[in-house]
């Protein structure tokens, strides 16, 4: 039996940068847009226009309204996301005019500042940069998220920082970046453009909202020196709208506590803090059956939620978010739509069955618009390098150079373990 693309082990539908825009997909999207926006008038004229544009150029240009709708629906269709109740409120920043690494970096900094401007209500934001032109190289950000912590492999074994990013960190060091060597050093943003090659930029401090972690009862907890950033901004997924591919379209929401407390800080292949916490808590770790891991996990997650709430930074817990997701399913049903969802991602990584999302199955489908993680982008995000697949029509690559820059000050504008890998 063949699986659904993007669910469990079935890869997503492949995209090659030389592929022309699929006319049928463009038509489906435009029909969807007009069906959900009656005020935009009948779709026929726009269909004729777009068919002609694709015939002439191999692609077409979205209107601002189409792009905004496309990005929102990509979120609505993101089968792994439990936070989709608010898909409609996504702030879409149209950055199709930015081309140089410097301009792109300025827009990324603005994105983070806009998303975190009011920490109490982090805004879901997406910045959409130029779409790929069939057969031409495109700009990309190598990092999997705009904000990630370095992981420094130690000569004696072990990693200081986030082991997930150890390869990426080593690649950044090879490119000339130097971190402090501490547990929560924010990595530079690696921006690659066709003209400039890859360039590294350090994020200014005010673009990186962070929360130091402590615990509502255990005083010693703050001595662990733990922290996490407040804005998860995925930066290596391709936004696919109506057959047009936007390889650079970073987007963010706000955190659900378990992402930090039950995965980033707890996974054995990440910060692996449960044994340390169990020790501090004086738990009996001699046998699995004392449930020391489970008990430490609860305290770690209480600390995450409590610290964010106490410092006034938006976060949500998995019980609330699960209830909201069920509300989302019902609301979508009333709108006559089925909600594609992947159980293995929707169910939270702790206390699954205490939340309503556990006790049911979901409609599994690969609907577009959507976000896709291409293999090259995944490798760049994890390793800081990738074996590019051979191009079907070779282009002359300009000479690449690598420079580490101080951040320019941008104009301030008034966002795997076993089976499924969840990040
Ligand atoms: N799980 C990822 C992380 O811990 C973030 C994925 C997106 N999460 C979100 N709440 N929008 O960094």
Would you summarize the structure shown here?
By secondary structure, this protein is an alpha+beta fold. It has helices at 23-36, 44-57, 64-76, 101-116, 166-174, 257-264, 274-281, 292-310, 318-334, 343-346, 375-383, and strands spanning 91-95, 125-129, 140-141, 151-153, 159-161, 189-193, 197-201, 210-212, 227-229, 233-234, 238-241, 244-246, 251-252, 255-256, 315-316, 370-372, 404-405. Strand 11 (238-241) and strand 12 (244-246) form a beta hairpin.
Key terms:
alpha+beta; 11 helices; binds arginine
The DSSP helix count reads 11
What is the overall pLDDT average? Answer: 93
List the secondary-structure elements in sequence, H or E.
HHHEHEEEEHEEEEEEEEEHHHEHHEHE
Tally of strands = 17
User: Strand count, sense and closure of the main sheet?
Assistant: 4 strands, mixed
Please state how the strands of the largest beta sheet are arranged side by side: 1-2-13-10
- Unique bound compounds: arginine
Parts with pLDDT < 50 across at least 5 consecutive residues: 393-401, 406-420
Assembly context of the chains: single chain
Q: Beta-strand level of the residues, as a percent range?
A: 5-15%
């Amino acid at each position: 039996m063949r699986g659904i693309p993007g669910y469990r082990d079935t890869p997503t539908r492949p995209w090659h940068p030389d592929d022309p825009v699929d006319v049928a997909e463009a038509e489906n999207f435009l029909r969807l847009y007009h069906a959900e926006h009656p005020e935009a008038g009948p779709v026929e004229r726009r269909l004729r226009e777009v068919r002609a544009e694709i015939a002439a150029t191999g692609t077409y240009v979205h209107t601002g309204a189409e792009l905004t709708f496309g990005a929102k629906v990509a979120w609505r269709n993101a089968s792994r996301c439990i936070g989709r109740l608010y898909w409609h409120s996504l702030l879409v920043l149209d950055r199709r005019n930015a081309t140089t690494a410097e301009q792109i970096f300025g827009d990324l900094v603005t994105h983070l500042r806009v998303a975190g401007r009011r920490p109490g209500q982090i805004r879901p934001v997406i910045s959409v940069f130029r779409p790929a032109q069939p057969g031409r190289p495109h700009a990309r950000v190598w990092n999997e998220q705009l904000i990630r912590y370095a992981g420094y492999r130690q000569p004696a074994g072990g990693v200081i920082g986030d082991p997930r990013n150890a390869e990426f960190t080593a690649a950044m060091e090879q490119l000339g970046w130097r971190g402090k060597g501490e547990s929560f050093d924010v990595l530079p943003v690696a921006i690659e453009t066709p003209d400039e090659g890859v360039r590294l930029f350090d994020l200014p401090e005010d673009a990186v909202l962070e929360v130091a972690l402590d615990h509502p009862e255990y005083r010693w907890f703050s001595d662990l020196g733990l922290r996490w950033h407040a804005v998860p901004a995925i930066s290596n997924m391709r936004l696919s709208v109506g057959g047009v591919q936007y390889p650079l379209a970073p987007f963010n929401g706000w955190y659900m506590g378990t992402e930090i407390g039950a995965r980033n800080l707890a996974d054995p292949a990440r910060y692996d803090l449960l044994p340390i916490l169990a020790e501090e808590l004086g738990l009996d770790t001699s046998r699995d059956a004392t449930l020391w891991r489970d008990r430490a996990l609860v305290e770690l997650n209480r600390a995450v939620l409590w610290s964010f709430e106490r410092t006034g930074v938006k976060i949500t817990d998995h019980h609330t978010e699960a209830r909201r997701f069920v509300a989302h399913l019902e609301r979508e049903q009333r709108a006559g739509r089925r909600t594609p969802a992947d159980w293995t991602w929707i169910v939270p990584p702790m206390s699954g069955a205490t939340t309503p999302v556990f006790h049911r199955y979901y409609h599994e489908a690969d609907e577009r618009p959507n976000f896709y993680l291409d293999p090259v982008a995944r490798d760049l995000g994890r390793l800081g390098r990738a074996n590019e697949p051979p191009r079907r029509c070779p282009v002359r690559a300009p000479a690449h150079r690598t420079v580490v820059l101080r951040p320019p000050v941008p104009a301030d504008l008034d966002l795997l373990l076993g089976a499924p890998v969840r990040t």
